Amino acid sequence: MNKKLVAALSGGAALVLALTGCGGDDEGNKKLDDWSKKVCDQMQPQVKKIQDANHSIAGVQTEEDSKKVQQTDSAAFQANADAYKALATSVENAGAPPVKDGETSQKNAVKALNDLSGAYIGLKKRIDGLDTGDKAKFGEGLKAIGGDIGKLSGQSDEALKKLQSGDVGKAMAKQPGCQKISASATPSKK
Fold first, then answer.
1. Where is the composition biased (Polar residues) (predicted)?
2. How far is Cα 90 from Cα 81, in angstroms, rounded to an integer?
3. How far is 150 from 155, CA to CA, in rounded Å?
4. DSSP three-state, residue 18
5. Residue 124 contacts by C-beta under 8 Å, 6 or more apart in sequence?
6. DSSP code string of 113-181
7. Is the sign of the CA dihedral 103, 89, 45, 129 positive or negative?
8. Is the separation of the CB atoms in 146 and 76 below 8 Å?
């Protein structure tokens, strides 16, 4: 009953992974490296919270007790909201990356992360409001929430990709806090 939700959450985790960049280049830009360190040092614990929350949702995907699913998902949505808010604060506090259009990229990324945080608060309210006494209605509610998570990831992906593009992505990829983030920690669609 919860598989679509888990699949959609995998997309949300991919957004966070998009912040990490994927290349490694030894070109030195001290200011950019310093900026990347500020962001990446704060990123790892928040990404772990998001991954743990998504794993808890994956863990109840075959659960028959609607109340337990509701409680688990609600707690996970709150954890995700808090983590995305903390990521937004980290990117904001780091200032604009010292690259062309860095301020715009930073503002867009902060907005995308804050939007995700707010959206997860909205999802928490929705899951809390579902009727656990009616399995069919509860299942439909979960399905709708899963669809909305999928839309969220598409809307926020672009700003995050822009933040980690080019030299910023290369600098972030060199930081230990960003290197530890693994895509394999996202829930699978079994």
1. 181-190
2. 14
3. 9
4. helix
5. 74, 77, 78, 81
6. HHHHHHHHHHHHHHHHHS-TT-HHHHHHHHHHHHHHHHHHHHHHHHHHHHHTSHHHHHHHHTSHHHHT-
7. negative
8. no
34: CB partners within 8 A, 6+ apart: none
Q: Are 16 and 153 in contact (CB under 8 A)?
A: no
Q: pTM (2 decimals)?
A: 0.78
The DSSP letter of residue 61 is: T
Domain spans in the chain, listed from the N-terminal domain onward: 3-20+30-182
**CA 12, CA 24: separation in Å to the nearest integer?**
24
Structure tokens at 83: 């983590």
- Is there a contact between 59 and 69 (Cβ–Cβ < 8 Å)? no
Q: What is the pLDDT of residues 101-149, one digit of tens each?
A: 888 888 888 888 898 899 999 999 999 999 999 989 998 998 888 888 7
Residue 130 in tokens = 């579902």
Check residue 176 and give its pLDDT. Answer: 77
Phi, psi of 175 (to 5 degrees): -85, 130
